[in-house]
Amino acid sequence: MIVVIMTITLVIIHILPSLSIGLNKLTITKVKLCAKMFMNMSELSDLINNALKDRGWSQTKLANLAGVSKGSVSNYASDKVTTPDEDTLIKIGRVLNLSPETILRVAGLLPPKKDIDPITAQIIHLVSQMDDVDKKAVLSYCNLIVEESRMRDAADEFLHRYNRLDHAEKMEAQKKLLRGLGLVATSRQGSD
Q1: Which of 7, 19, 124, 178 is 20 to 30 Å from 117 by CA-CA measure?
Q2: What does the alpha-carbon distance between residue 6 and residue 162 come to, in Å, rounded to a whole number?
Q3: Using an 8 Å Cβ cutoff, are 144 and 119 in contact?
Q4: How would DSSP label each residue in 174-185?
Q5: What is the pTM of this model?
Q6: Residues 91 and 175 in one domain
Q7: Cα-flanking dihedrals φ and ψ of residue 117, to 5°?
Q8: Which CATH number covers residue 102?
């Protein structure tokens, strides 16, 4: 069924506009939006079902926590919604720790934001709910992770270059390192 609908969608989006068959631009735009919304609803149902599975929740539990009907959750989770309701989606998103912007984008009610991936959007949403002290702690932790990553990259680069050296060059590099750490006396220190 989905394959048939997606095929029809592709025909509507890509072929009909190029044909002069009396469809006005507004009609084509409406059809495109409906087709896009249908394809996004599948992504939304996947998001909800994965969240339920990850948390070990039933649809009923999500509905109760969100303050929406079980039928609404069931319809979103089974891809049966044709006209999504923003308020319901925002309530569901809140319980799943998704920002209103994220869940509305996934549902196709907002245009996609290409420069922020879903994980980053979720991190931003969660951090926006914190007080300043917690935000500073998260920032410090993020800086630490980035610095550790840079150090790992630098160490990897060093090892890559070191492994390309011959034996004599490796011995000289080791001496320089030990001198730099102050573990081996330099020739001047040894002659004093």
Answers
A1: 7
A2: 54
A3: no
A4: HHHHHHHTTSS-
A5: 0.45
A6: no
A7: -75, 165
A8: 1.10.260.40
> Rounded to an integer, what distance in angstroms lies between the CA atom of residue 184 and that of residue 178?
6
On average, the pLDDT of the chain sits at 77
Burial class, 161, CB count within 10 angstroms (exposed 0-12 / middle 13-18 / buried 19+): exposed
Is-contact 147 122, C-beta < 8 A? Answer: no
One domain, residues 89 and 105: yes
Pick from 129, 157, 174: which residue ends a domain? 129
**Reduced to 3 states, what is the DSSP secondary structure of residue 99?**
coil
Angle among Cα 125, 131, 132 to the nearest 5 degrees reads 105
> pLDDT class for 151, splitting at 50, 70, 90?
confident
Burial of 48 (0-12, 13-18, 19+ CB in 10 A): buried
Q: Letter for the amino acid at 164?
A: R
| Closest alpha carbon to 73 in 61, 82, 83 | 61
